[in-house]
Design brief:
- The strands form 3 sheets. A 4-stranded mixed β-sheet has the order 2-6-7-3. Strands 9-10-8-11 form a 4-stranded antiparallel β-sheet. The chain has a 3-stranded mixed β-sheet with strand order 1-5-4, with no helix packed on it.
- It contains 3 helices and 11 strands.
- By secondary structure, it is of the alpha+beta class.
- The longest helix is centred in the middle third of the chain and has 13 residues.
- The protein folds into 2 domains: 74 residues, HSP40/DNAj peptide-binding domain (Sandwich); 61 residues, 2-Layer Sandwich (Alpha-Beta Plaits), CATH 3.30.70.790.
- The relative contact order is 0.19.
- A hairpin with a 2-residue loop joins strand 9 and strand 10.
- It is elongated and about 55 Å long.
């Protein structure tokens, strides 16, 4: 079984050129897990033993501890609820209410998407927005204190020393 313990973000790829040994296609819910067993697209078994809190992004590369094996992560297509709107304020309200419920949201110009949920679809529809269902890879926002890309901490996490106050 392959063991992957290190992640190299797509943005760091030029600094770490390595040939792909495989592809690991995962839904978003599995890309949020730091420990799991999985199968590469070619059928080989793999174990992910990643730092706690790791969120894998499409294009991230997983490395084995000895540096010999590598696999690229692919975001699997999954069922999404997609909201399109020309009114930025109304779209921002929907994003706010979804975020207030800790729902991961993917944002684009004039649209947002979240993992399909008929209850959330009803809430968004009550706000006057139409919701359609589609199938596509899901890459939600990382969040204010989340990892902005593989291996990279957000620039304003805890454990920093500078002269301003945080209300934690």
């Amino acid at each position: 079984m392959l063991r992957f313990t290190q992640v190299i973000a797509t943005s760091e790829e030029a600094m770490h050129p390595v040939a792909n040994n495989g592809v690991l296609t995962l839904r978003f819910e599995d890309r949020r897990r730091s420990r799991m067993r999985a199968r590469l697209d070619d059928g080989r078994e793999a174990a992910l033993l990643l730092p706690h809190g790791t969120i894998l992004r499409d294009g991230d590369r997983l490395h084995a501890p000895d540096g010999g094996e590598m696999a690229v992560v692919r975001a699997a297509a999954q069922s999404l609820s997609i909201v399109r709107c020309d009114d930025p304020l109304l779209l921002a309200r929907a994003a706010y209410h979804l975020g207030n419920r800790h729902i991961p949201v993917q944002l684009g110009v004039g649209w947002l998407a979240y993992e399909h949920d008929h209850v959330l679809d009803g809430m968004v529809a009550e706000m006057g927005l139409s919701v359609e269902t589609g199938v596509a890879p899901f890459e939600p926002e990382a969040g204010g204190y989340g990892r902005t890309s593989a291996g990279e901490a957000a620039s304003h996490g805890h454990g920093h020393g500078h002269a301003h106050h945080h209300d934690h």
